[in-house]
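Is this the right way to post structure tokens for a design question? Let me know if I should format differently. Anyway, here goes:
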């Protein structure tokens, strides 16, 4: 199983007896390393927009006599500031999810409500690119979860579907019920650029981007899919993907179905 980290403490409790306490610290150490890694990554990611802002401010000062240049540079400053703000917001969201018990308001949630809200918020950007978002399938399904977090998860998938698709394509949101597994599946299907096979395993990692330049252009932070993964896992569900470069991608969110009432089937032929 790899290396196990044991913390051993020894105490003499009487002339003849010693007490040995061994604690398995493997998991704690793993979490600590992930945290440290995260802090290093965050500092690195924050440096880029902050550096750009500092440089732009200097440039504006130098170009004070040229109103056209001032306008161009201040617009770029606004874009950098918006990116910085989105990044900070996602870092906070992810840190909140990494703390146990992130699900606050767990109730039965109609999937239609989650989809309506997420699609509504993604629609403006989609319309700007001439992308139509359609919904279909078992929209009456009900899941058990945190409404706000489910909207965040679906919103992230929709934002990506729109960001990594070309003008005039379609994005579909389809719901199906995997009743055997007690899960509701929400699939976001796009006809976008797709993801190369060797990047497919990595897209759920924090700050991983297939094409950093493109992600930056679309205002991506590289945190969206790791947020979705956390939300799915916190619900006792999962998120998976399928993709073919040049054809598109499908991201499927699986969340436990809610049962309004439990039906107990009594077999009255059975002689107990
Ligand atoms: P970002 O903020 O960069 O979009 P994500 O964590 O949401 O970060 O996604 C990680 C990377 O996975 C993206 O930078 C992009 O390269 C790739 N990706 C995510 N969704 C899609 C999609 N629907 N189509 C193509 N590539 C995608």
């Amino acid at each position: 199983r790899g290396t196990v980290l044991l913390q051993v403490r020894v105490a003499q409790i009487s002339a003849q007896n010693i007490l040995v306490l061994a604690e398995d610290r493997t998991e704690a150490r793993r979490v600590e390393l992930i945290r440290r890694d995260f802090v290093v990554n965050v500092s690195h990611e924050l440096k880029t927009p902050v550096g750009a802002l500092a440089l732009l401010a200097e440039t504006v000062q130098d170009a004070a006599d040229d109103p056209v240049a001032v306008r161009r540079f201040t617009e770029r400053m606004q874009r950098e500031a918006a990116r910085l703000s989105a990044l900070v917001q996602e870092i906070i969201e992810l840190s909140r999810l990494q703390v146990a018990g992130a699900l606050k308001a767990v109730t039965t949630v109609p999937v239609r409500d989650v989809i309506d809200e997420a699609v509504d918020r993604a629609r403006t950007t989609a319309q700007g690119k001439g992308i139509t978002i359609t919904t279909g399938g078992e929209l009456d399904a009900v899941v058990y979860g945190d409404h706000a977090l489910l909207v965040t998860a679906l919103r992230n998938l929709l934002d990506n579907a729109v960001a990594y698709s070309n003008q005039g394509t379609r994005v579909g949101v389809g719901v199906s019920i995997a009743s055997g597994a007690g899960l509701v599946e929400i699939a976001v299907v796009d006809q976008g650029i797709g993801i190369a096979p060797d990047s497919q395993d990595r897209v759920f990692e924090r700050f991983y981007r297939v094409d950093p330049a493109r992600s930056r252009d679309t205002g991506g932070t590289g945190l969206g899919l790791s947020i979705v993964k956390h939300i799915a896992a916190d619900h006792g569900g999962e998120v998976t993907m399928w993709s073919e470069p040049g054809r598109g991608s499908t991201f499927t969110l699986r969340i436990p179905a809610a049962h309004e009432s439990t039906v107990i089937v009594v077999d009255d032929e059975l002689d107990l």
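Format looks fine. Someone answered above. Worth noting: Residues 156, 160-161, 164, 190, 192-195, 203, 208-211, 215, 220-226, 249 surround adenosine-5'-diphosphate (CB under 6 Å). The first strand starts at residue 6 and ends at 12.
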